[in-house]
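Lab meeting, item 3. Inverse folding demo.
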């Protein structure tokens, strides 16, 4: 960890900064993990001085931090680190004022400078070019890019090119907060630090894999953005494919900044191509209608953003990793808004025993399943078949071995942004996406977008508060499978 750091947030008064970034920085300050000489500089169009911005951040932390963690001494220490710069990105004079603040420290040449782009992707290149023009980019500088990185392959390449003209690839951190979750990181440890699973982690023993990211919320205030994106761009192309990569990747020589990303890229390049025939047969898109979520009546997507949209709020699809380890094993991906629960999980379903040794037993032998719970309750659950205690023959029933991180380790689980922001300061890109990963993911997803746009069919409707369109269940049922819910 560096001794000095200037952490600049472009878009410092926005929702992401106030809801996620500043609470994460507060918690790391609370744990004594921020570099001792850290400044946090917010850049925005808002006409705020330092004092007014600190009041805004104080209110945001009180709203978004968990009860009981807000300590006045830590809060005052964090607030003292804060500065606000009012800046029109097209105004050269404002940029020189910002550079003057950066240089206003004796250790300028040794300071790590992090530039977090919490602004619209179309502004990424412009901000980076301005930073270069004022001389604020050197070997100690790093830039963080939030998704979406483009809306298709061509635009993603354009964004990467514009930022890449200023920053070297080693200085660019493309953030996906799912990769900072403890359960996702622990997937690597479970696979590669234990010997009992790896011999089974292949097509000989795995029947199929399911990856679900379900949200009970609607589009809310993001309706304008979401209607231009949709579930495939917003979730599948990044979050779900990254989870798939961690499940399917080969063991790296060791876990390091490039070795893990090399193996993830190989998975993306091995995904079964999405031809028109495959898309028509193996994808389902839906959009939520009015319904009930948690006992509350909620509006339809059309009522929230306007009628006539063809944007999907739900996607289910089937794909395959075409390599030696996984050939023939289907991977089912599913994501949606206004579903019956909020949950992100990976389910690895193993094959049934090759021979039934208990023909007179009561009950059934169910396939073993490993549930990896990403949110809201991070942990793992291994489903087994066991004998119910008692005399008089075999009575079989499913049981589970549970690992809940919150109770197993008896400590608070840090938010994903807490881990990822510290990795940026350290210069560790292991949990961030590399340019070739982003572009490989777009190259795979783009044919689906084009096929959907070229057909007249509307997304299938599903009532809010349900598990999505019935066609999503049929996607598995035709293969003799069902979606595996946690308690099923």
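The presenter then showed the designed sequence:
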């Amino acid at each position: 960890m560096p001794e000095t750091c200037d952490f600049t947030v472009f878009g410092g008064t926005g929702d992401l900064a106030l809801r996620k970034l500043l609470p994460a920085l507060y918690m790391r300050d609370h744990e004594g993990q921020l570099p001792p000489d850290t400044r946090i500089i917010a850049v925005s169009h808002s006409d705020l001085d330092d004092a007014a911005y600190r009041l805004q951040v104080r209110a945001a932390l009180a709203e978004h931090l968990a009860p009981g963690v807000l300590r006045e001494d830590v809060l005052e220490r964090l607030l003292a680190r804060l500065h606000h710069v009012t800046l029109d990105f097209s105004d050269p004079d404002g940029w020189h004022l910002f550079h003057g603040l950066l240089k206003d420290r004796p250790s300028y040449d040794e300071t790590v400078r992090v530039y977090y782009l919490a602004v619209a992707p179309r502004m990424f290149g412009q901000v980076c070019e301005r930073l270069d023009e004022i001389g604020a980019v050197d070997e100690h500088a790093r830039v963080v890019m939030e998704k979406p990185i483009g809306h298709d392959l061509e635009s993603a390449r354009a964004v990467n090119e514009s930022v890449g003209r200023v920053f070297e690839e080693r200085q660019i951190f493309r953030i996906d907060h799912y990769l900072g979750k403890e359960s996702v990181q622990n997937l690597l440890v479970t696979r590669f630090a234990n010997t009992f699973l790896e011999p089974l982690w292949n097509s000989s023993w795995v029947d199929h894999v399911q990856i679900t990211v379900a949200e009970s919320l609607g589009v809310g205030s993001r309706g304008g953005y979401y209607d231009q994106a949709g579930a495939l761009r917003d979730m599948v192309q990044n979050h779900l494919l990254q989870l798939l990569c961690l499940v399917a990747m080969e063991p790296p020589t060791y876990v390091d900044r490039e070795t893990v990303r090399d193996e993830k890229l190989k998975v993306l390049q091995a995904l079964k191509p999405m031809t028109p025939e495959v898309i028509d047969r193996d994808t389902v898109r839906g959009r939520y209608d009015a319904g009930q979520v948690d006992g509350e009546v909620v509006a339809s997507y059309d009522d929230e953003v306007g009628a006539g949209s063809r944007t999907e709020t739900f996607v289910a699809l089937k794909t395959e990793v075409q390599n030696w380890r996984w050939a023939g094993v289907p991977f089912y991906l599913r994501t949606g808004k206004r579903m019956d629960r909020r949950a992100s999980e990976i389910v690895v379903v193993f094959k049934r025993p090759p021979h039934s040794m208990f023909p007179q037993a009561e009950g059934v032998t169910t396939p073993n399943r490993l549930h990896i719970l990403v949110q809201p309750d991070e942990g793992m659950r291994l489903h087994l078949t066991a004998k119910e205690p008692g005399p008089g023959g075999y009575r079989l029933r499913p049981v589970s071995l549970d690992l809940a991180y919150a109770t197993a380790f008896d400590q608070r689980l840090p938010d994903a942004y807490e881990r990822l922001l510290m990795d940026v300061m350290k210069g560790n890109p292991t949990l961030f996406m590399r340019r070739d990963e982003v572009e490989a993911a777009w190259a795979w997803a783009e044919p689906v977008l084009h096929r959907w746009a070229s057909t007249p069919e509307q997304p299938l409707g599903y009532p809010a508060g349900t598990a999505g369109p019935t066609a999503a269940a049929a996607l598995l049922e035709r293969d003799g499978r069902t979606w595996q819910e946690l308690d099923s």
